[in-house]
Amino acid sequence: MKIVTHSGRFHPDDVFAVATLLLVYPDAEIVRSRDEDIIHSADIVVDVGFVYDLTTKRFDHHQIEGAGERESGIPYSSFGLVWKEWGREIAGEEEALLIDKKLGCPIDALDNGISITENKFPEIREYTIYDLFSSYIDTDEDDEKILLARFLECVGIAKALLGREINNARKEIAGTKIVREIFAKSEDKRIIILDQNLPWSKVLIPELEALYVIYPRKGGSWGVRAIPKCLIGFESKKPLPQSWGGKGAIELAKLTGVEDAIFCHKGLFI
Q1: What's the order of all strands across the beta sheet hosting 58-59?
Q2: First CA to last CA across the chain, in angstroms?
């Protein structure tokens, strides 16, 4: 099995595309080239060649017509195309969808020049996977042997990350099911008490009744979280009392009447 991607600078889309393929074909040969003969000799081609064709296993998105887009409107790049083809086989149906939302969409959007975040600070932006992989490339580096070695190093990082995210997705699916059951059985749906730390956000944030979630923390303590209004951000549906903000154990215990209270964040969300 020979997998070909482009030479020169690499980006998260081709790194994760190759990492995905190596989860399916661990003994595959990886070649980086823009030479047409080498491209035509490949079993699978990603991010080069100007062709998207499942029958010939060509996964490029740079052609003028692109390679399609998701229902959200985010177009596919090479990672998304490869994950769409093999993700279910690697991770499972639900897990593959979660990973596409968490990794595939942001990576593909960035590679297609689409911003998915609001820039509140003109001279500052988020540090992304793109920046992480770019740090492996010297701006004046053009030795393909060195670039291949660094590319493969990044592919190793991507493979490990995919493995962890597959495991996390499985835990999230199972945990979310438990939270949904607990919420359904709760008499007072404003305050949800969990007996273990579970992924509650995707269940409780959309439910307008749910205002606070209580859950166990390491070391034997418990946390109280004011549930956010949306999945991204810290603005709560109903923040904790203003007087609690930034208070430590002694002051917080006096204010709340809870003798072993520890701390309340000044942002009033935990």
Answers
A1: 29-32, 2-5, 44-46, 58-59, 52-53
A2: 52
**pLDDT score, position 185:** 96
Please state, in angstroms and rounded to a whole number, the distance separating the CA atoms of residues 228 and 33: 47
Buried-state track 126-152, b at ≥16 Cβ within 10 A, e below 16:
eeebbeebeebbeeeeeeeeebeebbb
Please say if the pLDDT value at position 139 is more than 90.
no
Query: How far, CA to CA in Å, does 143 sit from each of 8, 34, 50, 146, 211?
Result: 9, 15, 25, 5, 56
Distance CA 150, CA 12 (A): 13
Task: Report d(CA 255, CA 57) in Å as an integer.
Answer: 65
- Whether the CA torsion 40, 46, 47, 51 is positive or negative: it is positive
Q: Which of 84-98, 119-133, 156-170, 207-221 has the lowest mean pLDDT?
A: 119-133
pLDDT of 64 reads 95
Amino acid at 193: I
Write the CA distances from 211 to 41, 98, 247, integer angstroms.
Answer: 58, 25, 21
Contacts of 85 (CB under 8 A, 6+ apart): 54, 59
Q: What share of the chain is helix, strand, coil (3-state, %, to 5)?
A: 45, 15, 45
The answer to whether 99 touches 166, Cβ cutoff 8 Å, is yes
Helix (H) or strand (E) holding 2: strand 2-5
Tokens for 214, please give them: 């209580």
* Spacing of C-alpha 160 from chain mean position: 13
In angstroms, the Cα distances linking 89 to 1, 24, 158 are 18, 9, 18
